[in-house]
Amino acid sequence: MTAPATAPVRRRLTVRGTVQGVGFRPYAHRLAAELALAGFVSNTASGVLIEVEGPPDDVARFCDRLAQQPPPLAAVTGIGLEELPATGATDPFTIRPTEQSTGRTHLPPDTATCADCLRELADPADRRHRHPFITCTHCGPRFTIATAMPYDRPATTMGAFPLCHACVREYADPADRRFHAQPVACPDCGPRLRLVPAEGSGARPARDAEALAAARSLLAAGRIVAVKGIGGYHLACDATDPRAVATLRARKDRGGKAFAVMCADLATAERIAVLGERERAVLTGPRRPIVLLRRRTPGAGPRPADEVCPGSPHLGVILPYTPLHTLLFGLPGDPPGPRLLVMTSGNRSGEPIVTDDDEALTRLAGLADAWLAHDRPIACPCDDSLIRVRPDGTEQVLRRSRGYVPRPLRLPFPVRPALAMGGDLKNALCVGEGDQAWFGPHIGDMGDLAGLEAARRAERHLLTLTGVSPELVAADRHPGYHSVRRARRRAARVAHPEPVLVQHHHAHIASAMAEHGLDGTTPVIGVAFDGTGYGDDGTVWGGEFLIADYTGHRRFAHLAPAPLPGGDAGVANPCRLALARLWAAGLPWAPGVPSVTACTPEERAVLRRQLERGLACVPTSSMGRLFDAVSSLAGICHRAHYEAQAALELEAAATEAREADRAAYPFDLTTGPGPGRCDPAPMLRALLADRRGGTPAPVLAARFHRGVARTVAEICRRARGATGLSTVVLSGGVFANGLLEEECAALLGAEGFAVLRHGEVPPNDGGLALGQLVVAAHARRRTPDSDETPDNDETE
Questions:
Q1: What is the DSSP string of 198-225?
Q2: What are 298-341's pLDDT values in tens digits?
């Protein structure tokens, strides 16, 4: 006999996605209580398990709202639904302890302080008034405090802080915003601040409110304070104080590389930078990355000192994303303090960000005048993310870390459990299983023990939180990379004892293909421009046009090679790179050429002998090195004190003249048997002629950029004619150059190409690991009849 429509029903829901650490259980509890439903909710290793019982209409309403209106930080990827026999339960809906099970769920990234917490922080009547660690289910640290999954307080670095009676009541109250909020704390239960002054700083050790007040005083006095954040230490100083900024730059051996600026609020950011609607949304959103913005003409209010970003039309701007940041700028009634702070990674140049307190006292000694620390451990380093917003409103992530990690990326095909090591520069790991991949946080360069240890720590943390047990390891083909040696050691412990080595530029193109969901059944025309990548022939590549899919690649064309004098060490001298380019093109080192003047006679003599005898002069087709050379030839940058300085300054100059001059320098294109060549000799001759004629450097720079873009479009047209392919992928660090990327995309789009550019995956080596992972997955994929299919990419 059919049960009446009003008879109770019971359903089991298995909710997958980012559903732990986002207040999902409290949300389900409140929703069930509102509808007077019975049942329970619990965390499991695979997500959130819910059983709900009550009238059919109310149960259906519960399920609909759960799927369509989840908590703000949740990202539901699927809900499994199972009908169960009704039990007649009438007890109130409960939150049960975490169930032990197998499976995988997603942890949310660290999230900026929410508006409710900021109101409480500033409210003298609230018990968390001025508490530097205020948080709730809608905001605060997640990734950087989690030590295991499922996500519960004992599995976080907050487990060392017992809750006081008041916090216990909030934690257990379904009506409270902190109901089952794992990082919940207050002034009574911690964590706590402490100020550790450097010898001779004039400050005294202090704790809690006194520590914060002392740090604000030091910053106002032009001193440098190492501030412990949620993902590591920052070095902070007053961004409006030229002497303070210059001191920090000198101590950190920063050269002329730009510093990021933290603004007290959006209004302050509006006064120093040009903001569109999308930039405002990104700056104030929950991820709070550093956003590259165009500098505004000086006006009223505080202005960043020129020393913050010398020679750049852009500012890297970020807003406060932790309560401690907000307190550093001050609340109403506080003494006046800086409204703009330099907030740069707490490290020495080239090293990973510091997270450990004792290590900070040693590694940042001599850089900081004081340390504003706290006693909550950081489970994994996580630097600030960096993005730019394109003119069309789309975002390009240049450094993917805090706010983005460990949010998963959907893969276009399933992969077996795998770990990809990335490269040695801008290192970031990637793990994958099934149809998902997870990037680890930005590590940086792998040139020393600190970088290697940071990578090992990030690997352990990422594998623990994702539950991936790699059967396969992937890495770059460069025989000298530290990441490759790590891959060989790691592969010895997995099912495939040899890593899959993936050619550098193939990995760049594959990363963009995977980000855009291409299944690889049709190859693409890949344009991979960067500074350095180990080529199939053992030379340095970097100006590549590839016909590629996930299984392999073919070099369709490339920039004509030139000697790289001194190898990687020579990159610091763009003037030498320029002379090597002139030598390769058969052009004289004429007096008056800026690069010739920049080199001493002795330097030129040694360089000429090197070039004539081929001593320490590996050939390179690198487009990044061509940008460096042109920067010097145009008289813009002859000696680089940080990575990509010459190219960045060339782009800045070109931006000044992009609308005033529409001419383009020519390249000579040759095709035939084997890969075609793109020879810059005609461009060099035209540029030198314009220079002799008195053409300003910005015009030279703009004509070069436009010439490269038109050459890209022409080679892609030829590739389409030869192959019939019409999808072009732009990847590699050179495409972090917004001017070049936009010009290439516009020209290719006008020619009818589908143009794929990076969004959430960085175009530089920070996105390399995703490409390695998907290529390796094809090289070692399972088939129904055998465990593996042979790798058909033997030409790499």
A1: PTTSS---EEHHHHHHHHHHHHHTT--E
A2: 766 789 999 999 878 899 999 999 999 999 999 999 999 999 99
**Tokens coding 779:** 């090289």
422 neighbors 772 (Cβ within 8 angstroms): yes
Take residue 293 and report the two structure tokens written for it.
């913005």
d(C-alpha 91, C-alpha 98), whole Å: 20
With a CB cutoff of 8 Å and minimum separation 6, the contacts of 232 are: 345, 346, 353, 354, 355, 378, 381, 382, 383
Q: What is the identity of the amino acid at 308?
A: V
Contact 324, 330 (CB under 8 A): no
Residue identified by tokens 């690991």 is: 769
Separation CA 655–CA 742 (nearest Å)? 12
Of the candidates 442, 443, 438, 441, the residue with the CA atom closest to the CA atom of residue 407: 438
Closest by Cα among 470, 467, 539, 471 to 503: 539
CA–CA distance, 336 with 334 (Å, rounded to integer) = 6
Q: Which of 223-227, 385-389, 450-454, 584-588 has the lowest mean pLDDT?
A: 450-454
Mean pLDDT, rounded, of the chain: 92
Q: Which residue bears the tokens 């960085």?
A: 762
Tell me: pLDDT of 21 over 80: no
SS (H, E, C) 331-391: CCCCCCCCCEEEEEECCCCCCCCCCCHHHHHHHCECCECEEEEECCCCCCCCCCCEEEECC
Q: Tell me how far apart the alpha carbons of residues 261 and 307 are, in angstroms, rounded to a whole number.
A: 12
Q: Scan for tokens 């409480």, then name that residue.
A: 120
What integer pLDDT is reported at residue 47 of this predicted model? Answer: 83
CA distance 14 to 50: 6
pLDDT digits 0-9 by tens, 676-709 = 999 999 999 999 999 999 999 999 999 999 999 9
Tokens of 413: 């095909």
